[in-house]
Each structure stands twice: as C-alpha cells, then as structure tokens.
Design a protein that fits this description.
Oligomer: single chain
Structural class: alpha/beta
Number of strands: 19
CATH superfamily of the largest domain: P-loop containing nucleotide triphosphate hydrolases
CATH architecture of the largest domain: 3-Layer(aba) Sandwich
CATH topology of the largest domain: Rossmann fold
Bound molecules: adenosine-5'-diphosphate, magnesium ion
Strand content: 15-25%
Strand order of the largest sheet: 8-6-4-3-2-9
Radius of gyration: 29 Å
CATH class of the largest domain: Alpha Beta
Number of domains: 3
Amino acid sequence: MKIYPKNRKTALDHDHESLIKGFGLGRDGKIYMEYQFSSNTDKRTIIAVTKTRPQTVFHTCPAVQNEKPCWHLGAISLALTNSLPIEVEIQEQEVTPSVIIKDMTQDILDKQGDFEILEVIEEDVPEEDAEIIDLPENATWLEQYGFPSAVLKKILAFRDKQENSLTDEQKARIPNPEYIQSGTELINAVSPMLYGKQGEAWEAPLLIGPKGSGKSTMAETLAAILMLPVNKIMGGIDINKDSLLGSKTLVPAEELDIITEAKLREGCKRAGIEPDVMIQRLRSSQMRVGFDPGILVQAVEKGELLVIDEVNMLIPEVTSLLHGLLDWQKTLPVSEYKTIEAPASFRLVGCMNFGYSGTKALNEAFKDRFRPVKVPHLKETLLAELISEKTKCNESVAEKLAILFKALAEGVENGDLPEAVLSVRSLFRIAREEVDGCGTLKSIATSVLTEGLEDDFEAKQTSDVIEAHLG
Ligand SMILES: Nc1ncnc2c1ncn2[C@@H]1O[C@H](COP(=O)(O)OP(=O)(O)O)[C@@H](O)[C@H]1O
Ligand SMILES: [Mg+2]
C-alpha cells in the first residue's frame, strides 16, 4: 500500500496532530507510535513499523481493511522518510508493544512524548541503530522473523562474508528456509550464534522439543539465514571418536611431476620396458602415513555448520571431544593429525528431545556449553496453514487435522497415547492421501496413525481419538 502526501497532511491537521502521543524506537528494532483513537475518546492504541526495507506496518483500522491509506499511516510515515509517497506492506494485526529505548517524539513532532501504553526505558542507542536497514534482494525473506536490528546487522555482515568466500559446491549445500516461527524461538537460536561484535563469541544453540516439532527444519533454516552449508551427524553408540575425526591411511608420498614422468617414459621406451607398469610401481612404492578426515574434521576445517541430532545420545568420548569447539577456544584437537582451529564461520547446532526413552540425561558440563532453545509444536492455525501449503489439501481438511493433532498431543501428554502418534509428517501423509482420494479422512487417518502401533490397546485408544474428531 502507498502512503501519500495527503495522508500525512491529514495527520498533521490540527485535530489529528494532537492525537499523536509519541514515537519511540523499540528494543525489538521496530518504530512505535502511540495515538488516541479520536477526540471523542480517551482510548489509545499503537501502530508499529519495521526499520528494514521493504517496510512492514503493523496496524489495523477500517480504512486499511478497505485498502485505503489512513491518517495513522500518514502519521507513522513521519518517522520513516521526508519524501512521500512510500510503499509499505501492511500486516493487519494488533500490536504488542515492545520496550521503547529512545523517545523520538521531540525530533519528529517537536514536542515531548506522552506515553501510556508504551513503556520508555531510555538506553544508549548508537547513532547507526536509529537508521533504516536495507535488506539485499536475496535476503528480504529475513524480514518475517522480526530480528532485532543489532542481530539483523550481524546476520547481513555474516552473509556478506559467506557470499564472497563460499564455492559453488558449498552454496549448493545451503538449505532452504522452511521453518515457521511460533514465538521468538528462531531469534533465540540465531542470537547466540552471533554473540560478540562480529559474531566471534558465538555459542551453539541446543534445540529442544518433542519429535516432529521442527528441530531439524529449524536447524536448516539457521543454516539458510547464515548462508552455511550443512553437515549432519546423529548421536548414538555407533558414533565414536574415530568415525568423527577420521583415521590414518596410506597415501602416495608425492605425485610424480609431469617432467619426471615424461623423462621416465622416454627412458622406458628406449629400454623397451612398458612405462605404465613402471610408473605405477614407482607410485605405490612411495607411500606415507596420511590422514583421512572424518565428517567432524571436515566440517570444522571448511568452516561450515555442524548439526548434531540427538545430542543426548552421544557417548562421553564424543562429548568430551566437542568441548573445545564449544568454549572460547573453538579448537578441535586431533591427536593423529593436529589441533584444528575452527575458522570464523564455523558454527554448531545441537538438537534433542527431552525424556525420549533410551536417552540419558545430558551431562551438565556439556549442556552448559549450549544456549537452550525450546522448539514448540506449531499452534493450530499455523499448523493448518503448513499442512495445506505442503500438501495442497482442502483448507477444512487441514483445519481438522490441526485440531486432531492438538487432541493427540494432549493424549500423549496425559500418557494415554504413545508418542509415536504425534508426528507432523503423518499429518502430511493423511492430507496427501486424502487429496488423492484414498479413502475418507477418518479411514486414512486411522490407517496412517495406528498401523505402526504394535500394542492393540494403544491402537484402540488412538482410533477413539480419531473417531471423536473426524467421525
Ligand atoms: N515450525 C515448523 N515450521 C515448518 N515446518 C515444520 C515446523 N514444525 C514441523 N514442521 C514440519 O514437520 C516435519 C517434521 O519436522 P522436523 O524438523 O523433522 O522435526 P524434528 O526434527 O523436531 O523431529 C517436517 O516436514 C517439517 O517441515
Ligand atoms: Mg529431526
């Protein structure tokens, strides 16, 4: 939607201007304006706008619903630019206020801010923090997550370096950002990955949540945000030091250079000997002990992202190996090889599920090296959107499945149902089979959700929940 000079003019009309109570810079990086609905009421409300371009205004009012710009937009534009018109995205939603760290009212309206809804806690704001951040074209999608501007700037700087240093092969291994944020969990995971002025004091996030809550998807999205190629390992008893670090091997001591090889061939020819056999023999006789790096060593040396799934299944020999990478030293000692200093771009993300049977409590010293981040299941509306987007099913089907999922989650929490039924992937399967006409929603759901259950009683319980919601 465009904001025109005439909208601003209306905002600055005498009876409107007095309704504008103040502007402030939020700690979350958005600019907030508090205003009074009209001169007939004392009721106040707020409107917010992002400082990242393209700019998004969070606002709801009847004019905007009719796709017409209102005086509120004219007023908030005062905080953005002198030259109108300006194109903004509108998100029609109630605005939750952030703490205001700088009162901007004096600069904009030449009067003192008079806030009731917004809480002002003045902090030292660096000059550049009040500026608007331009998102490059390949990064406009970052806007949706609402990163605070300090974090966003570090993300952009990090991406810049990556853009200029990655090979094409590495760029091809950067995943797509698919994670949908339900709260601020994505921000909570990115910010430790960039602690310090330039991210040099980074810490690894530990994504904790039930199965199917989106931990792996979030880890991949973190890679997409920081433009990091991904390397994955999965905790378990078969993952040991040797498999991660690598092993000694025999490698040719030195390649034959072309000149030596040519001379040799020439000599062989003269002596009437088959040169290939000779050269092969020479090569294999000159072996030395080399090192064949394992996945961990490779990820660290290349400065990529290492995602460790099921961190709580790692054996102690492996967790102690990772200690050095997770504290300030950022090194990986490999006794047969050398101590590797992780490049500035190297990052690590852990994932785990609390109380999943068979996992042990994570060693406290090891766990303390991570920033824990809870990854919740998607809420009903977002989940329904995800299902219909992924499977192209009918909206009402998606809604029913999202409600069923909530009921299943409650059942699992109460101990009535096995954890196995709580799978977002199963919901996609049900929706896909429904789209393909494989049965009624109820019959497909029963089949998908219960046929893998060994225990008849659990299967019956699950069927009952399905019957109650899709019957
Ligand atoms: N918040 C979310 N945003 C996007 N996709 C999600 C989300 N939560 C779950 N999913 C989807 O559900 C499936 C399982 O997610 P996954 O990341 O593998 O979960 P986990 O690693 O926690 O077991 C994936 O297909 C993923 O796309
Ligand atoms: Mg996973």
